[in-house]
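Fold sample X.
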Amino acid sequence: MSEPSFQDDVINELGEDRLTEIAGLLGTDATGARDTVATTIGAMTGDLQAKADTDDDDGNEVRQAFAEVTEAPLEGVATLGGGLGGMLSGGMMAGVLAKVSKPVANAVSKKTGIPAPTIARVIELLIPVLLAVFAKRAAAGKGGGGAAPSAAGSGADSPIPSPGAVPGAAGAAPAAPSAGGSLGDLLGQILGGGKK
């Protein structure tokens, strides 16, 4: 029995009502909405991983946002109304997701043929759900045995489905989580499934 993917968790957290709302927005059925949501989530997580790989301000911001998610779970975020207004309580991660939303909307639009403004609206609906799933995955990773989140294995077996591993060992990242485990472990835990 395998652990659900990040995309599956987001789709499950969305629920049928929100998926139906997205389908209406897209002018498609539930299957089309699921496919578009999955494509959008894949693009967003890929962009977050790519940014986390960089040694610039964007990379630092993404690493800080993931560290914040693991330190202060954002419980109940999905019930806060959705859209950009609802994500204000999501802290730094909400801001990071908002920043990647336009380039992701453009990329998904090119891939699917759906207008970018429509994809941007879908992303607005997804952000609170993404925040909730990030928080749940981070909390699940901590729940194994006490307060110290330790890496389940070595960084070499990180389940991040990206082409390259996120450099958690780069000591120059002041925002990397200080409670053990590399950034690769952290991103793998939240985005890629973590423990098996």
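Fold sample Y, listed below.
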Amino acid sequence: MLIFAGALVAATGLLLLLRTDLDSSYAGTVLPALVVIGLGMGTIFSSAMNTATTGVARSDAGVASATVNTMQQIGGSIGTALLSTIFANVVENSLSGLTAAPTALQQAQATLDGYHAAFAISAGVLVVVAIASGLLINRQSVRVARLERAGAGTTGSIPTAAH
């Protein structure tokens, strides 16, 4: 449940960043959104690590933790590359219709448009994460509880609910 809530909180922070415009201040617009994103992401990562390594034998705990960390790093790298590409395409499209060289104001607005696209897509991804975690993790918890009630929980190989 913490992953679900954290993803929605982080998505809210990203949506708050859509309020930025060329006259926005850091303290008034950006900082509050970053605090909300940080709260949400902090909740996601700690809970995701706990959930991903729950039920792993002690002898395999290091390998499981390292695998989760590696996948987080790979996912972050791919996500950054995709969002950077989307950002660049939006900026290029915003400036491509101009007949003359873009002014500094036009360049700044195109850059802001690129950020807005990346923030909106990121918020959408986090909503999908919230839905998936809400459906999948809770269903696993119900399945595990049923198996434990049936006496299968004594084998030590069945993951226990993380929350």
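Sample Y note: The chain has a mean pLDDT of 88.
Also: Residues 22 and 108 are 7 Å apart (CA to CA).
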